[in-house]
Amino acid sequence: WLLITGIDILEDKKHYAQEPTSLINVTFQELMEMDRSELAPYPLQRIIVFLNSRNKGPEAIPFCDEILSREGFDGKDVALYYKSVSLAQSTDRTKQDEAIKGFNEIIDKLQSDSFTDDAMWSLGLLHVQRKEWVAAEKVLFRYVSNKRLNKHNPEVWYNLGLARDAQKKYIGDGSAATAYSRCWSKYAGHFKFSCPAMLRSIEIESEYGKSKQGAYELAESWLRSMAKYTEHPVAGEYLRKTAALRDELASDPSVTVKKPS
Fold first, then answer.
1. The model's pTM
2. Does an H or E element contain 224, and which?
3. Is the distance from CB of 13 to CB of 27 less than 8 angstroms?
């Protein structure tokens, strides 16, 4: 407990100086060298969070397991979440399966106020990564349907679009177009997700929508609204692709090109 108290003091001092960082690392290292079975739950949690903040999640798994092996401790969501995150990053599908089980337990059994948002987001992305589109859609739609969950909305709406897209649910209720539209209309400033969502929306409208005219007008409107971002490191690429698509649509006989007034 003296070590934990020392860490708390050093972390408070970090607001005023940089020197305590190395001391925090040394203090945590000393704490980790102690017998895990003799550490109280709180120090174990601090170690787990510390290691994950340093991108050393796999090293935290033994400390997670120590907490999870104990009965009657109501803070198991911390250990289970961080263990599941580490396992999800593995290329071993057996470990990924264990991560899926862990995320589901946090969401459905523990019903953790602290970790349900991140667990459901992580679970949905893992299903997307594994191309398990039906499962991904189910989890991601459950996320956006819960108004209490909103930390990852831009990414979740975009990936929900991907999951539906992969199932050829292009237009209509519960479609990829609906999810993409929600992403780019409500979270336009999150270019990493809103820009590819917009481009794919235009492609879907062109291929499966009511007319190519609508796709052309959507592309033209977006390009005008984003004119100042043509050199943006993220948005620029999608604006160039959209401009090429707009020009392609403009050459279609069914499209009426409106000249700027």
1. 0.87
2. helix 212-225
3. no
**C-beta neighbour count of 125 within 10 angstroms:** 18
Query: What pLDDT, on the 0 to 100 scale, is given for residue 111?
Result: 77
DSSP string, 44-109: HHHHHHHHHHTT-HHHHHHHHHHHHTSSS-TTHHHHHHHHHHHHHTSS-HHHHHHHHHHHHIIIII
List phi, psi (to 5°) of 73. Answer: -105, 120
Q: What does the chain come to in residues?
A: 261
C-alpha 169/C-alpha 138 separation (Å) is 14
pLDDT of residue 66: 93
Query: 74 phi and psi, to 5 degrees?
Result: -85, 5
Q: Which residues contact 245 (CB under 8 A, 6 or more apart)?
A: 199, 202, 203, 206, 215, 219
